[in-house]
Amino acid sequence: MAYAAIRVRGHSGVRHDVEDTMRMLRLTRANHCVILPETEEIKGMLMKAKDYITWGEVSEETLARMIKFRGRLMGDKPIDDDVVKDNTPFGSIMALSKGIVKGETKYADIKDVKPLFRLSPPKKGYEGVKRGFGAGGALGYRGEEINDLISRMI
């Protein structure tokens, strides 16, 4: 399984240790998204930064759309099936997204890829940037609901 993590809040008032954790996760700006493998270390880092980010299990279809429309190579070049064929053992973007979700490969392992996605703010906005997802806000773990948020941000 793979997680999609999105930074919701900005830099103001963030403790240094939390900011370091988000820098290690490559979440340096608001509305940046990264794809992370499901490991105990990653879960701990996500829990430490839970007051500034949201995350959940990304689906294959959502990941494929995100790679196609928001994935970039160095030089701000888009990613298409030809790039995936040349630089990975996978034949298409959909096959690559299935491999990433299953844990067979990492998105950052593609040659010359920018390891994050710069997304737009969500249509109709966040639910609230100071409350957890369970309390009607946008922060913390949201499970499969992350796919709806990403669809609004692509």
Summarize the structure.
With 154 residues, the protein is of the alpha+beta class. Helices cover 35% and strands 16% of the residues.
What key attributes describe this structure?
about 150 residues, alpha+beta, Ribosomal Protein L30, Chain: A, 3-methyladenine DNA Glycosylase II, Chain A, domain 3, globular
Furnish the topology, listing elements before pairings.
Layout: E1 2-7, H1 16-24, E2 32-37, H2 40-48, E3 53-57, H3 60-70, E4 72-73, E5 77-78, H4 81-87, H5 93-102, E6 117-118, E7 140-141, H6 146-153
Parallel strand pairs: 3-7
Antiparallel strand pairs: 1-2, 1-3, 2-6, 4-5
Please provide a written account of the structure:
With 154 residues, this protein is of the alpha+beta class. Helices cover 35% and strands 16% of the residues. It has helices at residues 16-24, 40-48, 60-70, 81-87, 93-102, 146-153, and strands spanning 2-7, 32-37, 53-57, 72-73, 77-78, 117-118, 140-141. The strands form 2 sheets. A 5-stranded mixed β-sheet has the order 6-2-1-3-7. The chain has a two-stranded antiparallel sheet with strand order 4-5. A hairpin with a 3-residue loop joins strand 4 (72-73) and strand 5 (77-78). The relative contact order is 0.21. The model has no long low-confidence stretch (mean pLDDT 90).
How would you describe the shape? globular
H/I helix tally: 6
**What are the segments in which pLDDT stays under 50 over at least 5 consecutive residues?**
none
Q: Structural class, please?
A: alpha+beta
Helix content: 25-40%
CATH topology of the largest domain: Ribosomal Protein L30, Chain: A
Q: Supply Rg.
A: 15 Å
- Largest sheet entry: 5 strands, mixed
Oligomer: single chain
Average pLDDT score: 90
- Number of distinct beta strands: 7
Strand order of the largest sheet: 6-2-1-3-7
Share of residues in strands: 15-25%
- Give the topology string: H per helix, E per strand: EHEHEHEEHHEEH
CATH class call of the largest domain: Alpha Beta
For the record, the count of structural domains works out to 2
CATH homologous superfamily grouping of the largest domain: Ribosomal protein L30/L7
State the distance separating the first and last CA atoms. Answer: 21 Å
Query: So, CATH architecture of the largest domain?
Result: 2-Layer Sandwich
